[in-house]
Design a protein that fits this description.
By secondary structure, the protein is α/β, with parallel strands linked by helices. It contains 10 helices and 13 strands. Strands 4-3-5-13-6 form a 5-stranded mixed sheet. One of its GO terms (molecular function) is transcription cis-regulatory region binding.
Amino acid sequence: MRYSPEALNAFVETVSAGSFSAAARRLHKSQSTVSTAIANLEDDLGVTLFDRSARHPVLTEQGQRVLIHVKEILAASERLDQLAVRLMDNVEPRLTFVLSDTFHPSALEALLKQFDQRYPDTEFECLIGEDEDVIDLLQKNRAHIGLIESRKHYPPDIGVARLSKQTQMAIYTAPSHPLALRERIRPEELNAVRELRLSTYLERDQTQMHGLIWSAPNYLLLLSMAVQGFGWSVLPCALVEEFCHQQELVPLSVPGWPKSISVDVVWSKNSPPGPAGSWIKDYLLDMPA
């Protein structure tokens, strides 16, 4: 590649983040490193990509045209890396899969059965994680592939693809909780009652929670807290059906709920999954809606 991948990634991430400093944080680099990489790219191309006269860099008309091609180059490079892994057919001896509680238990059972038949000699480790914790495990090479509730933005070193199968989420509480006696609940009324909220380990380090909130790093712990009557919680419907006995939790009637959420399969572009991990990714993407 004539232009360095680092410069192309810095350019795309700056456009996405809106500033050099925000892009540097996402890339885990210094602001000067990102600024220099983009300046070098501008020199190589002979064009000005950003108007720097304002507080934040603004993409020029030339930059807008370059952005389209840069995204195509990065996507093609990633596809080439994935093809190379498949062609080598060097099956990884160990595979770590980060599973979100939003994934339907029956779908996981079917996946594991087929994986066992295809890769019986591959050591398989399954972790439970949500949101930022999944991203962190992939970036630290602690995991090879994961599932995560869909988000708008991902770090540039994370590959992502959207599953066609969505997850149903609803608001639950124990039948003994005062909210369970209400036929209809306005969303703002929930603010006066303790919420059992998902909060990953990384998010807890970065934010302070205030108000009537108890938190846990996964939905299964929140489910257990809700069953004990400590508050209300947004939970995956399939998880409640799988782990709760009849009437241990009841869904609350709140406008807009239950709702469907999208789920993404994610992996590290720097350490792409091998044949076994790629098979899991393809399996997940081929699942019917």
